[in-house]
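Notes to self, PepSY-associated TM region:
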Amino acid sequence: MLTVLFKLSRSLHKYSGLIFFVYFLLMAISGVLLNHPKLIRKVSVPLQITPASHTLSNGNRMAIRESIVDGDSIYLAGRGGVWQSNDNGLNFVKIDTGFPSASYVQDTFCLSLDKKYNRLFAGTRNGLYVYNFTTEKWVNIPFGATDNEPIMDLLQINNRLLLFTQQHCYSAALETQDPRFSIEPLRFDAQSRPQSARITHFFLKVHDGSILGIAGRLFVDTTGLVLAFLCVTGLTVWWLPRYAKNSIRHGNRRFNLKWCYRNHLHVGAYAFAFISIIALSGVLIRPPFVKPLAIFQVPLWTLPLESRGAWQPRIDKALFEPESETLWVATRHGFFSGQADFSQPLQKQIINVPHSGMGTNVFEALPKQQLLIGSFSGLYIWDLPDHQILPLPQHKKDAQLAKNNYRATGIIIKDDSPQYVADYRRGVVPLTATHPLQLPPQMAMTSMSLWHFLFELHNGRIFRQWLGPATWLLIPLGGFLMLSNLITGFYDWLWRSRK
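result:
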């Protein structure tokens, strides 16, 4: 009986590994590269090999994250860099002289227009840039110890420019041509610190290794390389001729198949538990498991790097509410407000709007102390005095959008009224505007960064064009196939060790 079980396990391990060899190898390599975006940030994927489902069209897929309307001038920013229109949106041109050319680093999150010195600030994934309308050229501006970290938002308050990264805030006076930034004492109320975290957040930290910081990431990288080694050695042992079971000669070179086979067994057995944990955690943070598991919590001490030191939630967006002169910050742990001079810690405020776990993409101040808040869970207006949600203008042409079925990535505001919303799937959609916005066809020619391509590959969405609605099945099926391959391989090693 045990012999039959061993033969069945060996066959399952062999043929599942051969059939899904490419998938397992791609998961290993893409996982390692995704952990180190700086290594590949300057590499872009040609449009010819980018799936049609992932090309930009009408401002979709984060092509528009930020906008500024100044009279007849409109500035748009997003994955394709910064675009300018001087005729109220009829024609756009890309302003890119001196701007990063690689798709990953030119991704722009925020803009700020300084009319006094006739310049435009742009916060990108790779740092801060300023565009001088006289010289018509972008220049990179240093602002901190790590000037190439993503800039989430820019605010102008009382002749000061505030710059928000995911963890810090910097400020500089706007009264000079050469702004000098200094870090601000940004603090959050310690009593608002959560005592637990979603279990899906825990699994994500385990999957990429960040639960243990850089050491954990390097360990996961090593595990990914081991998985790639197992894929290559397994294919090598099967592919090379059987008559050369122990070795094969090629000219003066001698390749030892026995060494390859032996190390495939032993390395796979020793790495079995680690690869299995990473594979299982990757499955659990994707549909259909992510939503049911999101209701469960784990103690904060299970995330050692987040349970020590001063509490610092990840920042998504910020705004200044002029009537109350209050600074607001949207984070992954909710909304905080306080004085703009940072003299006191920011206090957490209860805003009962549906909020996506992927963060806040739209956060703007409207008249009468109203806040416009948008994420992948919809677009909402929150009235501060009455603490209630106000209705958005109804969209008459699209029944789904009329139900606030937005995945909001950006907003275009003119005359203190939201005119258009940028939806992740549909692109730019009119709210109160009477005509569609004429986006330039060149915006759709923006290439995809290698990091984003690998990210979409790693989570399976890159295959949506071919798999359609069944795309969500790819990761759980692939993950369980990898687990079964690991388990059968480990069983085979135990059998051979006993024999």
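- The chain has two domains: 2-52+196-306+452-498, 59-191+313-448.
- The first strand starts at residue 44 and ends at 45.
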